[in-house]
Amino acid sequence: MAEEDVVPKTFRALVESADRKFARVRDLPSYGRAQGQHYFQKVFKAYMRLWKYQQEHRAELVKAGLNRWEIGEIAGRIGQLYFGQYMRTSEARFLVEAYIFYEAILKRRYFEGCGVKDLRVRFKELRFYARFLLVSLILNRTEMVKVVVEKLRALIDDCKANFRETNFKEWKLVEQEILRFINIDTTFTIPSSRPFRYCAMLNCHPNSVPYVARFHAKKVLKFRDAILMSYHRNEVKFAELTLDVYRMLQCLEWEPSGSFYQKHPAEPKENGVAVDYSGASGLIDMNLAADMTDPALPPNPRKAILYRPSLTHLIAVMATICEELPPESIMLVYLSASGTPGQINTSHVETSGGSRRTRKSMLTSHSSLEQNCSATESHINGVKGPSDYYNDYLWLGPKGNGGSSNLYPGDIIPFTRRPLFLIIDSDSSHAFKVLHGAERGEKAALLLSPLRPTFKGPSSADITQNGSQFTLFLTAPLLAFCQMVGFSLSDSDMEVLNSAESILSTAFSKWEVILCKSPSLDLVWAQVLSDPFLRRLIVRFIFCRTVLSAIWPPEGSDQYLPLCIPQLPNSLSPKSDVVQSCVSQLADHLKVSNYFHFEDS
Description:
The chain has 24 helices and 14 strands. The chain has helices at 3-26, 37-56, 58-63, 68-89, 92-107, 119-138, 142-162, 169-184, 186-189, 200-203, 209-214, 243-251, 289-292, 311-324, 356-364, 367-381, 409-412, 463-466, 469-475, 477-485, 494-517, 523-526, 532-551, 577-589; strands at residues 222-231, 237-238, 241-242, 269-270, 273-274, 302-307, 329-337, 350-351, 394-395, 406-407, 420-425, 445-448, 454-455, 563-565.
């Protein structure tokens, strides 16, 4: 073998070896603590060896005909590996590493400049943009998302013009998906809004910190694992990430307090001279992640993201995570789905505001659903038979798939042998009240959405257009409040927005103190109160319940109110002064108090 052939042949052998290993891990499930760790280490090592080799022999490889897009493909595979590992572990450093590689591919224009007639390379570039968009979305890199969207749009148009015999309809749908997503997501519509992620500076209230630090329940559980699932027809999504799951995913992660959101890394240099990327350069700074993550933050809880799973798949994932759950830990399960086959919640919307008589007439016009509510209520108070656990359900399946897609409350009971924090967002959520008292080992914490959302006008009510109202209250309470009353926020309202956030922060701090000091706090809530993510969900639930209670009169309002089981202390009930005063102050501040009515406590 000629000496000049050794380098390219060694390179090709390394590529083939790395690709074989990559194929093994690409389709591994993204849940479970032990899934694919061994394979990931091997394939990552293979790609690092390949990456280093092409850097060290760049000149020889370029001379032998190495294309720039081939370097881009290797970097893209490494980005895929990092993102896949983030989905398995929820560790922010893997997400940041994926972003670094994808950003480098874009800046170095690895896929640009290749022959316009090379359809295979064009498809590789399309897939790169789609993957980079997903990573940028989760990292809230809004400006980069806008840049990549324009690149994707231009490439699709170029491909349609140059490859007329090829159908690019699926890629036009990808473009439409991302445009629809960013037109609704408040990260893009209100860039100055607070992040969904837990930010110590914004969400850790100084007045309540000493009380939370001193709080000790008889039993303390650590929040380690979560399952996030959404299944609605035509819901807002990008790839396999729905809007509601996207919001909940970020709500259960730490906001990095480092420099990642404040600066852009400088272009790498060699010997003080800027690198020329006109050749097939493979230089990517793999140590930038150290500057972009915060090692002082605790690890994020692991999250299994399920997109339109079958019923059996959902149960299998719950069983796996339950089995692997560490001792003294709790599993959060978030389920958002319609309660009947293919049902969309637009028909369940009532317009808030108007006279109390008008609101009451609206409520009483839906007697059938109220009867269902009262029937379910009797399950709590009376003796429950086996059939009570298999009446109402969540619908997880295509239209006409029969009962095999029904998730009944009884299907959840086996998993109550371990501590469970269950959030149900559905028009049949109240059916899951029957789980209380039926647990097999541990009492479950239940947060159940209203059966119907409440909006000032019906235009905002469609879950397929705006996502779930209840989920938005749990992840961005001020935005949910404004959306509900029709108060339009924009960056020009910065002072109004900041003052409103201050009102909420002060209230949430008071409520945390009350929870910590309450002698009647149920152990189910007390054992998770030390966890910042779960504590934040609890106080936001209190806010949501109080807001909705202040809109609807007590008579017949059950279907419009969320439920928590077991009950929280009466000192934080919707009728208590300390809770009502927050909603009243916020409504006055935004000049929407005419939508609310408060009764004497």
